[in-house]
Design goal:
mainly alpha, 3-stranded antiparallel beta sheet
Amino acid sequence: MKELFPAHSGLRVGELAARLAVMPSNISQIVKGLSAAGLVEQHPMEKDRRIQIVSLTARGRHVAASEVSRNRKEVEAYFACLTGDEKRVMSSLLRKIAAFRQAGIR
């Protein structure tokens, strides 16, 4: 759900699978469970109705926001021992790693 949180208009099932590095069939099963819980909804893409878009429901957005906030607090507590300069270096390195991964290089 955290992958869907910043994507207000939703993500294609294939795109979500790629971001999570899992097979689309696995995502489909996860989406079914989250949909049954009222956390996500699935609808066909306007231009190509064969492609399914997954997006958070209002309830799912609330749950995801709470999770993101809780994770942020955990990370802040974890790195509280670092100085401001050390945090800036760590942040820079983590952004570099994230960009590398997002470029599809694993």
